[in-house]
Amino acid sequence: MLKVLLISIAIVLGVLALTVFVISKGYSYEHKVDPLPDNHKGEKDLNDRHNEENSS
17 pLDDT exceeds 70? Predict the structure, then answer.
């Protein structure tokens, strides 16, 4: 009976250690985001349309 209890405690501690390891590794991961494309032409077209709507 004592042998089963010790094995169970060892398994629980092993799972706990792996859980803490994986969580800490996940929090240390650096997310990278692609930069926004330079779309000056689209901004100019949008401004032109806005100005046309306001002038009419």
Answer: yes
